[in-house]
Amino acid sequence: MLFSYKTLFLLEADTFSLVEIKRLNIQSDNPGEVYFWFRFDKVTSGLELLEFVSMNKDGDEQQREFLQGKLQFNQSSGTYSTAEDSSLLQLKTAASLPLELDDAIQRHFIGA
Q: How many domains does the structure of the chain reveal?
């Protein structure tokens, strides 16, 4: 059985992806039960759930803060800095979710 979700944002770097998804199989007023951000390591295929802290939007520019780092992005590009390293990693938006990332999300939610 497949886990039902919609990709809201997908940003790519050479070695990792950041993705926000919305669960479609749950009805809740709690955003923490519906929306999830993940960091996917392209080398190890490891999936890390990012712990959401805050969000902001200024025109076309969006910001997200997680315990693990900070993300700033628009429709075409973005930057991410980890909590351990303040250097900015460049990202570009992507249109389609890679199969490996979908597989990791499926395993995360269905426990396979």
A: 1
Q: Write down the residue that tokens 């944002």 correspond to.
A: 9
CB contact set of 46 (below 8 Å; sequence gap of 6+): 40, 104
Tell if the pTM clears 0.85, that is, is over it.
yes
Which parts of the chain are beta strand (E)?
Answer: 5-12, 16-23, 35-41, 47-50, 52-58, 61-66, 69-73, 77-82, 89-93
Which residues are CB-contacts of 47 (< 8 A; sequence separation ≥ 6)? Answer: 38, 39, 40, 41, 101, 104, 105, 107, 108
How many residues would you count in the chain?
Answer: 112
pLDDT score of 86: 79
Domain with 22 in it: 5-110
